[in-house]
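Quick one before lunch.
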Amino acid sequence: MAPGFFITFEGLDGSGKTTQMRRLQAWLTAEGRTVTSLRQPGGTALGDRIRGILLDSRSETALGGITPLAELALMFADRAQAIAEVIRPALERGDVVLCDRYTDSSEAYQGGGRELGAARVLALHRAICEDLQPDLTVLLLPDLATSLSRARSRNLRHVQHTGADENRFEREDDAFYQRIYDAYEAIAAREPGRVVSIRDDAGLAVVEMRVRAVVEARLAAVALP
Ligand code: TYD
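Model of the thymidine-5'-diphosphate complex:
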């Protein structure tokens, strides 16, 4: 087993996980830990190109859009590269690795949202990620309506400011997001040892302290270099 500690953040778009991950990174660094952080899709040069294809709502094909299976395969291509280039080397050095989304996102979005099924996603995880599992997953799951309204207004602002189009997923309907929500709940129920869910929307500072407490307790139980 690699000596580092692997933490992933999961949740719907607009759940606040990216902000919480940044705050945790700042705290861990201040505590003297060496942290490597990345997001998926993305996190490597190849991954950033794959991200562009996956999130751009103008990604068109002869069939209209990207098919669900092609989307799933691209998510795993991105992940395989990130594992080889960033995650494994960092864990081998003994870093704390923070990853904004990982295989649970594929299980929730492609398995649940796109209705490809969890079994297919988990089989790919075993084959392509060599079953590399996070030591801890922080799942932020405030109610669906709150996440959705935040994600939609944020994306609009982002497009207005940067002209970047990353809203292929935000264009989906509420039923798609409900399936994602349900899939996340199923993952949390199946793996209570790995997944810590924070469900209420208690505000940034309160959630930050809860995340910190969980991470502190888990790190105390392992000896990092
Ligand atoms: P991102 O801008 O990172 O969203 P957020 O800040 O909300 O995490 O966009 C990532 C999008 O890609 C998000 O809508 C979820 C989706 N996604 C999948 O569908 N499957 C996956 O395996 C991953 C990693 C992301």
